[in-house]
């Protein structure tokens, strides 16, 4: 296993949208692709989360559910995400890929053996119609079937007691040299429940029956970390970094805490903000700044890089200034990137130091290297 950095997108939920309609959903993919290219790495697969309750409901309600299975439906939905273009040449992986399932079983078995995870008999609420586990508190309508009543029952559950683990999110879990520590995320993680239930009632997911939990699957918030580790193992990266928004990190970090390490691999997060694509997509913006030639470069490459610097989100009012900075760097880019500057840039990229994206000289070097390695169309051919 190489002790190398490689970036992977946090698995995106396979919901009812296309990347053309919601380009912000591709930010993590584009960011990982851009950073890996600057490190001289081959493109990594795009990662998707298919273990969703909405997917269960979609499958149950489908008129062709008896002839089209869940795996096929999820695959068809993923391919449609990239329309009207093809899926990326680097491939797609989901949190139900067979390597992910195998690794999840291996990790869960080890975590049960060392006491990090336990199986406990706990009270829960179950929908009286479909048996979906609705949670321990007062229940409303079942999110799985819509039924309005539930009953209290006891079930064996896969549990993570975070108090025996230490902090579920710390400074070392965030890959961001030179950036301010996201103290608000540490606070959120500190206040999650003491006992975290990692087994869920789903019809699709990593089956926990081998651990005595029939009818339950691994919580997808844990499973998406396993998906990144599995992809990293396939790629030969010992230090995988998952690109993720701050909101997503706040939601998944505690549940993924036991699943961020496997053997020599340790997963960290690279946080990024959201991009105001409704502003960045305006044709008038590029006419005013005479920047039509760099429109795709700006939306598909530069803005995702800027999002990793502006983790709280890029303000719409910043878009014209960022476009002008990119155009200026593009015009001034060297024919061949200076060796010392390129070496320094790669060190900063590997360390997660994103301050360089607003340095015209460093940005020009990155643009020149991008063209050297991928040609004038850049490394995003075939990407969303």
Explain what this protein looks like in three dimensions:
The chain has helices at residues 27-38, 53-61, 70-81, 98-113, 183-190, 220-235, 246-256, 277-280, 283-288, 295-309, 319-332, 339-351, 360-374, and strands at residues 2-9, 12-13, 46-49, 92-94, 117-127, 133-135, 150-161, 195-197, 199-200, 217-218, 237-245, 261-262, 265-266, 268-272. A 4-stranded antiparallel sheet has the order 6-5-7-8. The protein is built from 13 helices and 14 strands. It is globular, with a radius of gyration of 22 Å. It is of the alpha/beta class and 384 residues long. A hairpin with a 2-residue loop joins strand 12 (261-262) and strand 13. Helix 4 (98-113) crosses helix 6 and helix 5 (183-190) crosses helix 7 (246-256).
List the helices and strands and how they pair.
Elements: E1 2-9, E2 12-13, H1 27-38, E3 46-49, H2 53-61, H3 70-81, E4 92-94, H4 98-113, E5 117-127, E6 133-135, E7 150-161, H5 183-190, E8 195-197, E9 199-200, E10 217-218, H6 220-235, E11 237-245, H7 246-256, E12 261-262, E13 265-266, E14 268-272, H8 277-280, H9 283-288, H10 295-309, H11 319-332, H12 339-351, H13 360-374
Parallel strand pairs: 1-11, 2-3, 3-4, 11-14
Antiparallel strand pairs: 5-6, 5-7, 7-8, 9-10, 12-13
Helix pairs in contact: 1-10, 4-6, 5-7, 6-7, 11-13
